Structure formats: structure tokens, C-alpha cells
Amino acid sequence: MATHSSISTFITRFASITSPSSLPCQRPCTHTAPSARPVALLLLPFHASSLHSDGSKEAHISRIALLLPLLKDTAQLEDIMDCLQEWPEPVVPVQSLSEAPTLPDRYVKPPSQRPSVGDAARSLDIPVVDLAMLPGGGGGVVEAVSEACRHWGFFQVVNHGVSLELVRRFREAWRGFFHLPMEEKKRYANSPRTYEGYGSRLGVDEGAILDWGDYYFLHFLPCYLKDHDKWPELPPCLREATDEYGVEVRKLCRRVMKALSLGLGLDADRLQKALGGDDEGVCIRVNFYPRCPRPDLALGLSPHSDPGGLTVLLADDHVHGLQVRKDGVWITVHPLPNAFIINVGDQIQVLSNAEYKSVEHRVVVHAKEERLSVAFFYNPRSDIPIGPVPELLAAPGRAALYRPMTFDDYRLFIRRRGPRGKSQVESFEAMAIPGT
Ligand SMILES: O=C(O)CCC(=O)C(=O)O
To answer: What does the alpha-carbon distance between residue 97 and residue 364 come to, in Å, rounded to a whole number?
Structure first.
């Protein structure tokens, strides 16, 4: 077991590679970048804020110490940090392989993980919720959202209030990006340090079996992390459309957060407050799944639950691919025209003390069709502790299922390992404090 002093030395080492940065800010933002914030490392667990003010370094150490049951020793923590610096082997864009006659071995999943196993009947699908009555909450909308989050962790929303013209423009801009020449896309090649940019793998395990998909990952909030220079320059309308889309979908998330809060019997703003109020984080991942020579052997995205708060998915308007695990069976989602798919992430599961479920999902691919989807990740402010909302623990016999942890600490592990079902949130359940 690592000692606090050895962890402290380790943290100091990482603090020493921080550098000042000023990034363009599009709008007023209360959550400002500390002067020496390690922007390149912000997806790693060490926020400069936890290293500056008196005592907060110790707080960070104790948060890291909570993770130690998952780690053999400090060397293992160092190992995680080191291997997040670069990809372990050259990255090959999946798009460049899609015309190959056979599926390269790197993408062949073991038989138990292949998509044909356990597929459900078409008749079952995730609930659909009409949001026209939000934020007022009439017409049973709060109950419908709450039911969906308790039993499915997923639902589709119609009448969501986001302009359909904007959605079309945004989607076409990103489709255009993925059809640019490879050299243009590679200008934005990403690394596991921040994942920002054009990428083709998640996780840094050498020799891992990979998913059949490319993606573009970017930060939208907090505004000090948003950097247009890291977003594609082409097609020319992409940045503007992405900015507008981010603003509108954030508004949608805030409305849905109110419904989630009311559905738990809390004040409408309680969950938003627990997530960091106006200082929430937003990242966007645009997924591009090229045609695959053997879709029966591969997955576009391996089973995972989303680590953040809520995810708003813009699914492909023509090609299905998302599957949700329900009672051990994979259900194919059939997106309605002009709908969004919303799912609960691990942080909402934690805040709700597992009343709401963050559910495993995966993506299947196709031989003849490529597919584009956009995941809008609505996350907590990354440096505040996220634990079950105390009001939910007031009733006798209601024990906290999770210890508080920052989102920075939480996602460190996911970034290293890539998608691994629900193992992350479940391992933290196992660490809950008995009797609290
Ligand atoms: O492509 C999809 O339908 C789902 C994408 C997804 O689960 C993700 O980006 O986390």
C-alpha cells in the first residue's frame, strides 16, 4: 500500500509539469482556469486547483488514497500516469481499413463478445418521452423520465426544443469532416493525454483488441478548456455549428436535470447544484463507424457505461447500431426521426445513490453502411467531490453506496483501460463505507 508521502511526491512531480495557458473563452464562465492549470493534463486527476491553496493538496491526496484499494501501490499509479502520455503502438484509422477484404485480427472480438450473441427480439425498445411539457413538468413528464432512468437508464426524447435545422447542419458538418482526405484529418491526431482530436482507439493497453470506429473528441465546457484551434478547421461551417449545438444541447440537459431531480423527490435544482451548478463540464465525441468486412466478429464500441452525468446521443438518421443491455440481453435501439437518446452516466447513478441506473451499451457495425453518431457528455465540474445527495440518505436504512470522489479521479481509470462494461462504478460500490 502506498504511503501518503510517496503519493504526495508523485503529485508534486506532476504539478511540476504544469504550464500556464490562456484559451479563448466564448462566453462568461464562472469556472475559470487557475493561473498554472495543466491544460494538457486536465483529463488526468491532478487539477492545479488541488495543488495551490493550503490544505487542498492533502484533500487531493486523500481522494487518491480512496482509489488505492484498486491499486497495488504507488508504482501502479505512476504506471497509469506514464502510459497515458502516448499510445502504446501506432494508431491506424479504421476508415483506412474499411475496404480491406478481411477483418484484421486486432478487431476480432472473442466469441462471447460478438454481436450475434444474445440479441433480443425487435419488439422491445427503450422508452420514449415527450419533453414538450418541460420545464413545467405537467403531463407526467417527470414521472416518465424518472421511470426510464430507474428501469432502463436510457430513453428517447421528442419535442426536445433543439432546432432541427441546427441538428441537420451540425451532423452534416461532421459527416463532411470524416469524408475529408486522411491527411487533413490526421492533422488533429490525438493522444491519450487529453483524447482531444481525431482518434481511433480508447485505452492504452498494448495489444488490446480494438473497436471498429474512429472518433473526434473535443471540449466544450468549461470554457477555459474549449479551444477552437483543436477543432477541425474544415468544413468551414463546423466550428460555428458545433458552438451553436453545444449551447442548445446544454440547455436541454439542464431541463432534463430538473426532471431527474424532481423524480427523486428533490428540489428541481438540487442535482444541478450537486453537479457543480453553472460550472458543469461538457465534452463531445463524434463517432464514425466505417463499413466493416465482418460485422459479425467486431464491435464499433465495446460495452461500457458512460462515466459522466448525462449523455445526449444524436444517433445516425439512417443506420442503427446502438444496443442497450437490459436484464442481460442486448436490445437494439431504433431511433425515432428527430429524437435524441439520453442516458444516465455513472455520476448520476452515484448522486442518486443508485436510484437511477447508468446502463451498459455497445455499438454494432455494418458491412454496407457507415454510421455517424454524436455523444454529448454532460459532466460534473471535475474537481468537486461527487457522492450520494445527503437528502436521499435521510430515511432510516438508506446507506450511501458510494464514497465521494472527483470526476477527475474517476475517469483516470477509464482513460487507461478503455470501455470495460460497468466495472468502474461497481468497483466503487464495493468501496462504500459500511454503516454510512
Ligand atoms: O454510437 C452510438 O450509438 C453510441 C456511442 C456511445 O456510446 C459513446 O460515444 O459513448
So the answer is: 17
3-state SS string over 84-138? Answer: CCCCCCCCCCHHHHCCCCCCCHHHCCCHHHCCCCCECCCCCCCCEEEHHHCCCCC
d(CA 388, CA 390): 6
Q: Taking the chain, what is the end-to-end CA distance rounded to the nearest angstrom?
A: 24
Among candidate residues 120, 249, 107, 96, the one with its CA nearest the CA of residue 178: 96
Ligand 1 midpoint to CA 355 (Å): 23
> Where in the sequence of the chain do the CATH 2.60.120.330 domains occur?
97-431
Distance CA 70, CA 47 (A): 21
CB 301 near ligand 1, within 6 Å = yes
Taking the C-alpha atoms of residue 398 and residue 261, their distance in angstroms, rounded to an integer, is: 18
Ligand 1 pocket residue status of 162, Cβ below 6 Å: no
Distance CA(77)–CA(58), nearest Å, equals 17
Which residue's CA is the closest to the ligand 1 atom numbered 5? 375
Q: What are the residues whose beta carbons fall under 8 Å from the beta carbon of 62, sequence distance 6 or more?
A: 4
For residue 204, pLDDT beyond 90: no
Q: What pTM, to 2 d.p., does this model score? A: 0.83
Closest CA to 332 of 125, 108, 84, 115: 125
- For residue 187, pLDDT over 90 is answered with yes
Return the CATH architecture of domain 97-431.
Sandwich (2.60)
Mean pLDDT (the chain) is 82
> Is omega for the bond preceding 235 within 30 degrees of 0, making it cis?
yes
